């Protein structure tokens, strides 16, 4: 007969001895207390509360105990784990508070420090003005055409019916890059274009009629920079060549333009003038968009914009001279055309009460910024 089984004492299970549980608990508490930052605490947490931590393993042993021993062992391990979790949560809160306090100091922004003011720029009002005018014509089906600013004298003058002795060719008006007496021996020099009209000739040579083009661009004349002149300025040119175009089409187009830009009740008037490349030619005025002509003869209501004249001079226009059509290979018996051109700086001056042209060329953002991103 075999000897009776030795009675089973749960306390004898190594992992569940109270001293052992207490030791595991104290070890965990010590590890948490020693963790100096949240990363270290995370490591200690895995080691002391994770699925393979000694206390978790001890907990698993309880299941193997006889029923009468389970309650006591469960209480022992449960209390130890409770204490460990509480200590963990406490230390976690402490370390998070420390981190938050540190971050607040380290990442603090001193909003009272002076800063470098880099003001945002804006597109130049000359650019937006040119685009605004060009858009009126693009919406009517016109095409934008461009030409070079350094231009053959032939395009700038000869093709446009300027005679060789025309005063505009003289040195005091035109910047010559290479004089007509230059090394090439032929009679055409190279100039900085004095107007956008040479693009008319280029557009006609490039295309078969009908031609409808609008040409915005920079032009040059030998003027001193002062309040009302600048040697570099901008023009916008319009050219239409088709069968049966008349002065009435020109007038209607001008009226449409000023209505689009200045309001539905605007109109234009034409005064006879002379340009070599148009015949007949006219100076075009638009009704003053501020006083609508009411300041004329009315000293009680003076108008600064038109100097109480009722009209504002805009630019030149006319029917394309048949000589220009011929020079550009277009049959004047079949086609006719109209053209006009005007300065953007002048339009910007009266439209926005800019009193000094130098403001437009000096590049000071305090001038451009108020125009913002107006398109
Ligand atoms: N090119 C002319 C100027 O600069 C303006 C103009 C353009 C006149 C087209 C008639 C036709 O003054």
TrEMBL record:
It is found in: Cytoplasm. GO terms for cellular component: cytoplasm. Coiled coil: none annotated. Its main location: cytoplasm. One of its GO terms (molecular function) is magnesium ion binding. Residues 127-370 form the Aminoacyl-transfer RNA synthetases class-II family profile domain. It catalyses: tRNA(Phe) + L-phenylalanine + ATP = L-phenylalanyl-tRNA(Phe) + AMP + diphosphate + H(+). Binds 2 magnesium ions per tetramer. It holds the Pfam family Phe_tRNA-synt_N. Its EC number is 6.1.1.20. InterPro entries: aa-tRNA-synth_II, aa-tRNA-synth_II/BPL/LPL, Phe-tRNA-synth_IIc_asu, Phe-tRNA_ligase_II_N, Phe_tRNA_ligase_alpha1_bac, Phenylalanyl-tRNA_Synthase, tRNA-bd_arm. NCBIfam families: pheS. Belongs to the class-II aminoacyl-tRNA synthetase family. Phe-tRNA synthetase alpha subunit type 1 subfamily. Tetramer of two alpha and two beta subunits. This is Phenylalanine--tRNA ligase alpha subunit. The gene is pheS.
């Amino acid at each position: 007969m075999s000897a009776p089984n030795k009675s089973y004492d749960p306390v004898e299970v190594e992992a569940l001895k109270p001293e052992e549980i207490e030791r595991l608990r104290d070890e965990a508490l010590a590890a948490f207390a020693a963790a100096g930052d949240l990363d270290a605490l995370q490591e200690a947490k895995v080691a002391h509360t994770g699925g393979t931590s000694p206390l978790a393993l001890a907990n698993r042993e309880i299941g193997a105990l006889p029923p009468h021993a389970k309650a006591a062992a469960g209480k022992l391990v449960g209390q130890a784990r409770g204490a460990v979790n509480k200590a963990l949560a406490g230390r976690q809160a402490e370390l998070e508070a420390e981190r938050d306090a540190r971050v607040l100091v380290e990442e603090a922004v001193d909003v009272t420090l002076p800063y470098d003011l880099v003001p945002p720029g804006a597109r130049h009002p000359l650019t937006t003005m040119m685009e605004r005018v060009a858009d009126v014509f693009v919406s009517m089906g016109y095409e934008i055409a461009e030409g070079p600013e350094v231009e053959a004298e032939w395009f700038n003058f000869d093709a446009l019916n300027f005679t060789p002795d025309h005063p505009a060719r003289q040195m005091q008006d035109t910047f010559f890059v290479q004089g007509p007496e230059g090394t090439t021996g032929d009679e055409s020099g190279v100039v900085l274009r004095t107007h956008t009209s040479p693009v008319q000739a280029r557009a006609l040579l490039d295309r078969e009629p009908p031609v409808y083009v609008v040409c915005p661009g920079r032009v040059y004349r030998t003027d001193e920079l002062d309040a009302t002149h600048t040697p570099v300025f901008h023009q916008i040119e319009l050219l239409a060549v088709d069968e049966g175009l008349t002065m009435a089409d020109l007038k209607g187009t001008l009226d449409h333009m000023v209505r689009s830009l200045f309001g539905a009740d605007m109109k234009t008037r034409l005064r006879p003038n002379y340009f070599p490349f148009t015949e007949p030619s006219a100076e075009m005025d638009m009704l003053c968009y501020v006083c609508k002509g009411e300041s004329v003869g009315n000293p009680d209501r003076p108008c600064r914009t038109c100097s109480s004249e009722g009209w504002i001079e805009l630019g030149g226009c006319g029917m394309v001279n048949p000589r220009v059509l011929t020079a550009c290979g277009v049959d004047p018996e079949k086609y006719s055309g109209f053209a006009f051109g005007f300065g953007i700086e002048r339009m910007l001056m009266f439209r926005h009460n800019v009193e000094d042209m130098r403001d437009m060329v000096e590049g000071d953002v305090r001038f451009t910024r108020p125009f913002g991103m107006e398109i």
